Amino acid sequence: MDLIGYIESKREEHLNELKELLRIPSVSTKSEHKPDIERAAQWIAEKLRAAGMDNVEIMPTKLHPLVYGESLQAPGKPTVLFYGHYDVQPAEPLDLWTSPAFEPTVRDGNLYARGTADDKGQVHIHIKALAALRKTAGKLPINVKVMIEGEEEVGSVNLWEFVKANRERLKADALIVSDTAMLTKGVPSITYGLRGLNYYQIELTGPAQDLHSGVFGGAVPNPITILAEMIAKLHDRNFRIAVPGFYDDVATVSRQELKALNSLPWKEKEFRRTVGAPALNGEKGFTIREQLWVRPTLELNGIWGGYLGEGAKTVIASKVHAKISTRLVPNQEPAKIARQVERQIRKLLPKSVHCKFEVLSMGKPWVAPYTHPIFQKAIHSLETGFGKRAVFIREGGSIPFVTQMHDTFKVPCVLLGFGLPDENAHAPDEHLALENYFGGIKAIALFYEQLATL
Amino acid sequence: MDLIGYIESKREEHLNELKELLRIPSVSTKSEHKPDIERAAQWIAEKLRAAGMDNVEIMPTKLHPLVYGESLQAPGKPTVLFYGHYDVQPAEPLDLWTSPAFEPTVRDGNLYARGTADDKGQVHIHIKALAALRKTAGKLPINVKVMIEGEEEVGSVNLWEFVKANRERLKADALIVSDTAMLTKGVPSITYGLRGLNYYQIELTGPAQDLHSGVFGGAVPNPITILAEMIAKLHDRNFRIAVPGFYDDVATVSRQELKALNSLPWKEKEFRRTVGAPALNGEKGFTIREQLWVRPTLELNGIWGGYLGEGAKTVIASKVHAKISTRLVPNQEPAKIARQVERQIRKLLPKSVHCKFEVLSMGKPWVAPYTHPIFQKAIHSLETGFGKRAVFIREGGSIPFVTQMHDTFKVPCVLLGFGLPDENAHAPDEHLALENYFGGIKAIALFYEQLATL
């Protein structure tokens, strides 16, 4: 049976197997899910072995284990390193899911569960593509190294240690990643740019303990009010980030590139519908596409303080917390930006409160030189696998590892993403379109096949 | 045995009995504590009967029951109505209590537990004063009506219905309340002014669901940032409330009264130590005493939105919530202030978010005409019971019921408080000084005794 025919014949089997993986709540940010993380790693290792990978190992790290496997049976042929992650974001708020987050459910041609799009579904596409190639060709036409981590959603804290310690073993001619989204339904895409991510946490402390807002209100600092006043000063009227020096290193994007990005087939109306807000809100003077892909941001990701329960409690909080992140673009330097943000926070701080400022993670932005021939192979495989025209896009999200690999190994990174922007990655009702899951397996199998002639 | 000697002989018995009441977690804001509320009401009824009150009844309301009892055995003598509450604030955050909130513990001359100061300890002072009078004099020298509610911490939602339905029965020559604080340790006090309280909740909704802050960040409204920008505009640089019309109806306080209040024995240094913040923060142009007692406030009591958990989640929240309260002074009108606050919130609202604005409760401010002779009896009883000079003070907190009684029955309301400002009412480690608990029983017994000659 030919490669595509074989993959077509296995649709139901592939889908059922993916559902098994999605049922494991491998949430890496929460320590109570440690056993689920271990279970997911075991599952991945088992499927890699079943796909014919040799030397499959579960490598412990200081936090969550990494699964590694390789097939080096094609001497003289190119070697690729595939990277993915088996950990997922927390599913909260649970009550907003139509079907439970860890009970995969098909509705209207989509598979719903935490991790479908980000990134278990996409990892599974590669495992099944490799299995299909091996089955139909007898052996893999190229050399493949597979590395699936369990810490992507907590900033890949130990991944880099592993890469450095295994630098020789991991050497490859290209890095392949599927953790991004297609531009829109029916438009298979290769992502050539990612924003970097710095994540911060702030704690303000005013009164030494919570105080009665009647007895003390009017004379004491209220940390919630003060934090709000500080946050309000982090953007100007044009929604530019009001942190001195923040934009200093932002690289100019060529008119040609901007034109290409702005003329991609993309429906603003659909984007607005996906967002569902009464109006959009972005940096003045830039298109939505530019705001999302080539401009940096500063976003509040969480805030909490005082009484959060039912009804009324007349309290002035001692402490208030905020989680803040900045998305970075070339050539912003994460450590420099973190210093600038902290300096501005401390500058805005009134003397009536103390501030604890923590940098939870830092990550660089990345842009690929997509003239390398591997990108032509990738575009062609996507077009054949999906039967549609494929395009080059950028992405607003961050994959720190891509940047690190690019900087260290100096090899091309090819980001083939099969999610869609409205599939609620990181939110309730995350899902993956089945046509992209099945199309992805075909495209990836063809891509690995064609790499033999790179 | 004389009245004071009798009370002195019962110290241990009184304290042990109070501890029983404090062990019942009668938190009125949380529906899971309904059985504890019922248990506390039963306990109060039983002790009123033991103190010799007749016709003790537990009156059901739409929410939490009210305990009523009366002793009308002194024809021709004055009648007083005593009001208190047996419900308490939530104990959260539990981990900040030195000893558990509902396990009363004596340390350094203080009794620690939720409800010691607010208001179970003070209610118990009256119950034991009445019991002692009855025991030593054979019968009460005046007529007493006692009404202890279970909804004070949720805005006394059904109390007024009860009062209106029992208007004739509740008639009295004066209302006596002990739910306030003394100025400072060793200074027994009568409170003649209270601030009113309006409590609001705001919900902003931007995106229809939580969004990935990488994929969508930069082009969509972030409700947390927007709420912060709105909150920042609710005060001006001098910490005056920036709500048009807010101060229009604030009554002028005479220079004489301000002078009396500002010259009370009160140590700013101790206040600063109690607050424990790096610096104070209040409306410019007013003393701390004025900021707390005669000026209105707008305070943020709670805020929450986005990811509140451990670590990092790169999310843009769909919704953010805030709890806000305003403290009102004569002659601000609660309904008018609520309209002004809502109007300003809606004016500050950008078109990119929806806003739900709720008024959770409203309450008027109050000031007593303290020239009535009952206030002289009260001052004298306090001075005899405590052996110290007593003073007239105001309070920053609110007791909506006092205002309603004052407006309806046109009788003097005497607020004799035995708490202290640093006893953490509404916060972890709430406590009551034992010297004020024991002194209070003596002073109140003397006061009820002296009212026979009013």
Give the topology, please.
The structure is a homodimer of 454-residue chains.
Chain A (H helix, E strand, L loop, with lengths): L2 H7 L1 H12 L11 H17 L3 E6 L6 E6 L7 E7 L19 E3 L2 E3 L3 H22 L5 E7 L9 H7 L1 H4 L3 E4 L11 E6 L1 E10 L5 E2 L10 H10 L22 H8 L5 H8 L12 H6 L3 E10 L8 E2 L2 E10 L5 H15 L5 E8 L4 E2 L5 H14 L4 E4 L5 H10 L3 E5 L13 E3 H17 L4
Parallel strand pairs in A: 3-6, 3-7, 7-17, 8-16
Antiparallel strand pairs in A: 1-2, 2-6, 4-5, 5-18, 8-15, 8-17, 9-13, 9-14, 10-12, 11-13
Helix pairs in contact in A: 1-14, 2-4, 4-14, 12-14
Would you summarize the structure shown here?
Chain A is of the alpha+beta class and 454 residues long. The first copy, chain A, has helices at 3-9, 11-22, 34-50, 116-137, 159-165, 167-170, 223-232, 255-262, 268-275, 288-293, 334-348, 373-386, 400-409, 434-450; strands spanning 54-59, 66-71, 79-85, 105-107, 110-112, 143-149, 174-177, 189-194, 196-205, 211-212, 297-306, 315-316, 319-328, 354-361, 366-367, 391-394, 413-417, 431-433.
General description of the model:
Two copies of one chain form a homodimer. Helix content of chain A is 35%, strand content 22%. In chain A, the strands form four sheets. In chain A, strands 1, 2, 3, 6, 7, 8, 15, 16 and 17 form a nine-stranded mixed beta sheet that branches. The model of chain A has no long low-confidence stretch (mean pLDDT 95). Chain A contains 14 helices and 18 strands. In chain A, helix 1 runs antiparallel to helix 14 (434-450), helix 2 (11-22) packs across helix 4 and helix 12 (373-386) packs across helix 14 (434-450). Chain A has helices at 3-9, 11-22, 34-50, 116-137, 159-165, 167-170, 223-232, 255-262, 268-275, 288-293, 334-348, 373-386, 400-409, 434-450; strands spanning 54-59, 66-71, 79-85, 105-107, 110-112, 143-149, 174-177, 189-194, 196-205, 211-212, 297-306, 315-316, 319-328, 354-361, 366-367, 391-394, 413-417, 431-433. The first copy, chain A, has two domains: 3-194 and 365-453, Zn peptidases (Aminopeptidase, 3-Layer(aba) Sandwich), CATH 3.40.630; 196-250 and 296-361, Alpha-Beta Plaits (2-Layer Sandwich). At the A-B interface, strand 9, strand 10, helix 7, helix 10 and strand 11 of A face strand 10, helix 7, helix 10, strand 11 and strand 12 of B. Strand 11 of chain A pairs antiparallel with strand 11 (297-306) of chain B.
